[in-house]
Amino acid sequence: MAEEFTQLRKSKPVILAAGLIWALIGIVYAGHGMNYAAEMAVRHNLVEYAELMLFLLVAMTYINAMSERNVFEALRSWLIEKGYGLRKLFWITGVLAFFISPVADNLTTALLMCAVVMAVGGENSKFVLVACINIVVAANAGGAFSPFGDITTLMVWQKGIETPQGGIGFGSFFALFIPALVNWLLPAAIMSMSVPNVQPRGGGKVVVMKRGARRIIALFLLTIATAVGYHNFMYLPPVIGMLTGLAYLQFFGYYLKKTVYREYGMTSRQFRTECSHDEQLGSLPAFDVFNKIARAEWDTLLFFYGVVLCVGGLGFIGYLAKASELMYGDWGATNANIAIGILSAIVDNIPVMFAVLTMMPDMSTGQWLLVTLTTGVGGSLLSIGSAAGVGLMGQARGKYTFFGHLNGHCSCGRPGS
């Protein structure tokens, strides 16, 4: 949490904590003759992390590829050319985040919209901060009413829960649309008052996307569709579809390398001839997908490793189950489900929801939808409370921070400032 003051990357303390927690678990279990119990548990957590890390790695690779092809710069140029002020851009990115996240998941959507905000906002740190907060809230809210928008919603859907009112099927979650919309619109309306209604600087410069940019966008959408299809129709983890989609980009990158001469309006022979005479032309870097992978936000990916293993260790010991049992046993379903949402801002919402599903309290369909909503949007309270917030802290480092998110619109100054 103190990264912006200490300048210590957030991945370092959580990786250390994960190692210490599991070392303590291993020592205790080995001392009781249960040598393989901790090993099996930590391997399970590693598999969960591997799925998450590889999924994010593919998403980040596509985003970096689109950035290299000037997709976001071109969008920035187009938005400025339309004459939109920062306040309109604030609403445009929020609307897009809310309606894209049910399909593309909240993290991928947040990363995409943040790239646009960073391109449009330029050096206006106040606008970037409040726009990133808006994106996190919108992406988390939009992902809550779709099984493919948030992992916790997906977990509830996959569980096949039966209640006295009937089973909770795919269409049941669309009842959360209005609550999710209110959850985003109300904070957005308040925050918009703090956004200066000025024009972004740098207008008039037309940015043209590089060759292949539109096809990379299409391949990214196809990759998302592949991940959804693998999960929905073949019952395989979505990460398998995402990695299949990475192959789409790899093959297209190979095509761009082999046909780079077309970027200069030449034939293959003319390009080879020119390269032999012009050393600068011959040394131009070709599109390389592995360069895009190397530019991924590795600090964020390693932070997720620490979070998954830390929380997994606490869950293995039994703390999460005890907490859930106490809340549902003493507080009642409604109060417990609201508290679960607040807790998900501090402890990752996935193990929190897993603990609830493990306990399987006797609740109505409405209560199950309530806990789905609160765990989905509760992470918006803190920047570290959701994958979208953590991802944006890495992407907009120095501008979108833990305490900046905590202060909300108050830290953004008065309107027009």
From TrEMBL:
Residues 32-376 form the Citrate transporter-like domain. Keywords: Antiport, Ion transport, Membrane, Sodium, Sodium transport, Transmembrane, Transmembrane helix, Transport. It is found in: Membrane. The keyword Ion transport applies. The chain crosses the membrane at residues 14-34, 46-65, 89-120, 127-148, 168-195, 216-233, 239-256, 302-321, 336-357, 369-393. The keyword Nucleotide-binding does not apply. It holds the Pfam family CitMHS. It is a multi-pass membrane protein. NCBIfam families: NhaD_1. Belongs to the NhaD Na(+)/H(+) (TC 2.A.62) antiporter family. PANTHER family: SODIUM/PROTON ANTIPORTER 1-RELATED, SODIUM_PROTON ANTIPORTER 1-RELATED. This is Sodium:proton antiporter. It comes from Candidatus Accumulibacter phosphatis.
